[in-house]
Amino acid sequence: xxxxxxxxxxxxxxxxxxxxxxxxxxxxxxxxxxxxxxxxxxxxxxxxxxxxxxxxxxxxxxxxxxxxxxxxxxxxxxxxxxxxxxxxxxxxxxxxxxxxxxxxxxxxxxxxxxxxxxxxxxxxxxxxxxxxxxxxxxxxxxxxxxxxxxxxxxxxxxxxxxxxxxxxxxxxxxxxxxxxx
Length: 181
Known about the structure:
The protein is mainly α. The chain has one domain. The chain is built from 5 helices and no strands. It has helices spanning 2-53, 56-69, 87-92, 103-126, 134-161. The radius of gyration is 25 Å and the shape is rod-shaped. The termini are far apart.
């Protein structure tokens, strides 16, 4: 009987030690994941808010309307980006795998689209679009499509992080008023 009690006590102690270690690691990973999610939520929501407040999408739409009414128009809105607004991404890109699906894929997609848009903006600012406005128009149409996709993917990320698949668009940064059918 004493041997059985000793073995049972030892087994319980061993199970408790493994369980406590596992639980501590699980809790640490969960906390880190939640912190990373929160940081991405803040950065992405800020980027979407900047796009909205500065009227980037509506400016591109206005450029296209102006080109429709004036076929010889080759001027367009210029955007200048001098700061990096991607500190959370840059500091946590190696930890994206800690996040639950579909966040890693969506976050990579979001930032790839943003970097592509910034590259297009740089090219537009340096390009000489003299002559026909068809080159300018095509570039603006592509940039507008990317900007709308940035907004869409960004809002999907925000909704996923907040676990609100059918979140109220007014709580997110979903200004569909800029979109035209």
